[in-house]
Amino acid sequence: MAVLKDMTRYLRKPHPIARRDAFTPDTVLALLKLLGFTFLMLPILGIFMGALFAATGVTLPEPSEEFADMASRPNFIILAAIIAPLIEELLFRSWLGKRWGVFLVAPLLLVGLALLILMGTDDVTSGIRYAGAIAVIGSASLYMSRYLKARQEEGVLDQALQRIFPFAFWGSSLGFGLMHLANYEGGEMGLLLPLIILPQFVVGVILGYVRMRFGLWCAIFFHGAYNTVLLTVFSKLSQAAL
Digits of tens for pLDDT over the chain (242 positions)? Predict the structure, then answer.
């Protein structure tokens, strides 16, 4: 499919997209194909993670009490389908299309995530908090080193944008995934704990592509559709298991 080939090419070297195509029925079809691909990836990731966790004998974390309580509320579908996609896309991807956002928001967001991880609850081991903090602070350091190097060249802003943007793109997906660690507690996974949010990271990467290729509103609606379908399927499966 053309959209998957285009996404593959884009992810090899993420870059600011100067012009986006108009919103047409072909755009809707492309987004539906991407949504189907996203759901196809979930069982593949599940099999990989299940095999890895079984081989290492780790104890998987359970959903946190706060998340379980929120998920049991009647209005959770509204939160997951409308409110969460809007807030998360504004926080993690709205600024990707803005030069000032890439320069300013990305490093601040990564450092903020590092601080939140370090100040996290005791349900996440200190080793995991430090590993996560090192990952995001390291990303921010690489990000700024590229910027400082670009400042020595002509066309500083354009040069810096091209050099820094891949870090901003992948950093936004990393931050999106790490945020979902708050949904879990307990378990004895050690340094494998970040793998529990591998599906969210992959979805974040796809959402990043949607945001850059089709625009912010398409990313918000894509995110909402993904959450709605996922929660509906899980709800049906849970009812069938009872």
Answer: 689 999 999 999 898 876 676 778 888 999 999 999 999 999 999 888 888 888 887 777 777 777 777 777 777 778 888 888 998 998 888 888 777 667 666 666 666 665 665 555 444 455 555 566 666 666 666 666 666 665 555 556 666 677 788 888 998 898 888 888 777 776 666 667 678 888 999 999 999 999 999 999 999 999 999 999 888 877 665 555 55
Spacing of C-alpha 152 from chain mean position: 32
128: amino acid identity, one letter? I
Angle between helices 198-214 and 156-179 (to 10 degrees): 140
- Taking the complete model, does pTM exceed 0.85, yes or no? no
Find all residues with CB under 8 Å of 235, minimum gap 6, and list them: none
Q: How far is CA 207 from CA 48, 77, 179, 193, in A?
A: 22, 20, 15, 23
CA angle 182, 186, 191 (to 5 degrees): 80
Tokens of 96: 């990707």
Please state, in angstroms and rounded to a whole number, the distance separating the CA atoms of residues 120 and 202. Answer: 23
* Positive or negative torsion for Cα 81, 82, 84, 86: positive
Comparing CA positions, the residue from 90, 74, 58, 75 lying closest to residue 186 is: 58
Looking at the DSSP bridge assignments, the partners of residue 163 are none
